[in-house]
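Blinded run. Sample ID left blank on purpose so nobody reads anything into the name before looking at the predicted structure. Input follows.
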Amino acid sequence: MARVKLTKTELKAQTDALKRFQRFLPMLLLKKQQLQGEIAGIVAKAEAAGAKERALHEAIGRWAGLFAADEEQLSGLVRVTDVRKGSANIAGVTIPTFESVEVEVREIDMWVTPAWVDDAVKAATEILSLQCERAVYDEQRRLVAEELQQTSQRVNLFEKVKIPECREAIRVIKIALGDEQTAAVTRGRIAKGRAPREEDAA
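Blinded prediction complete.
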């Protein structure tokens, strides 16, 4: 703790600071709780998108087995040309939101490709969309986690440093001011006790 002045002015400054920290701490704790809840929600959405993606991969895998094709050939049929994103605000953090993807489908010769390729293109488009959606969730989680870390640091600073420091400073100043007051009263009594003796001597 930094050295504090043992004055009434400093006592008021420390008391005001303590009140300020105690007023802000509940808000920071609430924000921390909100951010933790948001991260849990983002993780759940990312896991749901991942589960859908795995199911689609399995479906494509079955087609690939049936027609002696492999998934790499199928994935080349479709590519993402644009990812459309919006934005949202979570507990003061601006995060991207997933809206949609634009894809380009490779030209297919309908006479030489089997009919199931249309379904494969649809599934590949959905997979790419889910992958882009999960990438947005990863970015959301990163941004919210950064804010959570900063908020947790502020909570720790207030709880473990600032509030205890203010309380200790207030305690030390009150003791010093009390001692000073006692000394002043004692000096006053001594001075009062001397005054009659001095008058008698005169």
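Unblinding after everyone has recorded impressions. The longest helix spans residues 116-201.
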